[in-house]
Amino acid sequence: MDTQHTNARPHAPSRNDWKKRSSRPRTAAARGGVVHDNTRHTTRFTVIGNHLAQHPELSLLAIGLGVHIQSLPGGASVDIRSLAARFPEGTTRIAGALRELEAHGYLRRTRERTKDGRVVTRTVSCNQPGRADAPEEPKPRRPARRESAPGPRLLPAVPQPAYPVPDLLATALGVLSGLRRTDPRLLISATDAEHLVPGVAAWLERDLTPEAVHRALTTGLPPEPLHRPAALLAHRLADRLPPLPPLGTREAPKHPLQNCDTCDRAFRGPEPGTCGACTPPGQGRPGDQ
């Protein structure tokens, strides 16, 4: 038998050996990382920048909504109601996501008045905010006296309710919708209402009735025209927010008056019986815990 040479140099890797090595999974994939199975798109696709898809500050809902809006054709409806009818998140969450996109420059929304007097919201989707060579957006023709007016500004922040349950938010929206009946100047858009609803809900959580919140928002308004009624309402909701009622100060429901079976004096209790003075020690009155 021939002697095996243990100190012989290994043979050079063949072409098949290199193919086998190159086909092995990468280190990240071997540890459980994502593996992309990509197919090149030739029709019906949208180019999305990683600055949006991997934005470090936007919420996942805002990123998804931004991608959806960029994939839509020109002229598609992207108002809150249309988006809420398309997705299950609801108007409040969608309105918050739109505000995120607007704050980071992916959306520009302006309100314009049409020739027939209607107020519509014009939405511009930006696939790369802050691009230096972006073409200047054509501005609508306005009267000369309003050409120097400042553009739309974000509304002031409003208080947030601790428990934004649907019934509470619906009641808050009803309060905002009724303000214009007291003062027509308080007519606000659906977008502004979505921003203000949590602030009204925070007031209602403080044991105020809808009528009391209505009075607080409509009393003492300035006599001059209100150019930004939503901003004024947001300021009032934050500036005049009443404190939370202290624990234990809420009035407990009162029991009806009863006549004591022994002394015939009146006392409050859930059912007839004896008053505290006539009840033997150690024996509580009916209904006492």
Rg measurement, Å: 33 Å
H/I helix tally: 10
What overall geometry do the principal axes of the alpha carbons give? Answer: elongated
Instruction: Give the low-confidence spans.
Output: 137-152, 249-253
Short description:
This protein has 289 residues and is mainly α. The chain has helices at 15-22, 27-30, 50-53, 60-71, 80-86, 91-103, 166-182, 190-204, 210-218, 229-239; strands at residues 107-113, 119-125, 257-259, 266-268.
What tags apply to this protein structure?
Arc Repressor Mutant, subunit A, mainly alpha, 10 helices, 289 residues, two-stranded antiparallel ribbon
Please provide a written account of the structure:
Among the domains are: 50-130, Arc Repressor Mutant, subunit A (Orthogonal Bundle); 166-239, no CATH class. The strands form two sheets. Strands 1-2 form a two-stranded antiparallel ribbon. A two-stranded antiparallel ribbon has the order 3-4. The protein contains ten helices and four strands; from the N terminus they run ααααααββααααββ. The protein has helices at residues 15-22, 27-30, 50-53, 60-71, 80-86, 91-103, 166-182, 190-204, 210-218, 229-239, and strands spanning 107-113, 119-125, 257-259, 266-268. The chain is mainly alpha-helical and 289 residues long.
Q: Secondary-structure map with pairings?
A:
Blueprint: H1 15-22, H2 27-30, H3 50-53, H4 60-71, H5 80-86, H6 91-103, E1 107-113, E2 119-125, H7 166-182, H8 190-204, H9 210-218, H10 229-239, E3 257-259, E4 266-268
Antiparallel strand pairs: 1-2, 3-4
Helix pairs in contact: 4-6, 5-6, 7-8, 7-9, 8-10
